[in-house]
Write a structure and sequence with these properties.
Strand order of the largest sheet: 2-1-3-4-5
Oligomer: single chain
CATH superfamily: Response regulator
Number of strands: 5
CATH class: Alpha Beta
Largest sheet: 5 strands, parallel
Structural class: alpha/beta
Number of helices: 5
CATH architecture: 3-Layer(aba) Sandwich
Order of helices and strands: EHEHEHEHEH
Number of domains: 1
Low-confidence stretches: none
Length: 121
């Protein structure tokens, strides 16, 4: 069975836990990678070149938008789908402008990831 790697970049652990649980409930062919800092996200992206989907929070960590440069950097080589996930519509728009393909609110993340992965192999 082929595994699809999904990188979740989010500093709020309850969201990471919820997204991971919901995604794994819906699909058993997904490897979920979690990063709660920008440095960890960069490390995981470098270590796992086969990532299929990246979910990007706007503020990692904290409450100030700080991940646009990471989106731009990742987008230079990443050809997969990147989701801007934030409760703030302005932050989502900024991440979209930086290179994300899709946007959604945080509760919508698991369903969007599953949608982007397509039908199970």
């Amino acid at each position: 069975m082929m595994l699809y790697a999904v990188l979740l970049v989010e500093d709020h652990q309850p969201w990471l836990d919820r997204w991971t649980e919901d995604i794994l409930e819906l699909r058993d062919d997904v490897l979920v990678l979690c990063a709660n800092t920008i440095v960890k996200a960069e490390e995981l992206f470098e270590q796992c070149p086969g990532v299929a989907v990246i979910v990007m929070d706007a503020c990692v960590p904290g409450d100030s938008q700080n991940t646009e440069f990471l989106v731009r950097s990742v987008r230079k080589t990443f050809k997969g789908s990147m989701i801007a996930a934030s409760g703030d519509a302005h932050y989502r728009k900024e991440l979209m402008a930086a290179g994300c393909d899709y946007e959604c609110t945080k509760p919508e993340v698991p369903q969007k990831v599953i949608e982007l992965l397509g039908d199970p192999a």
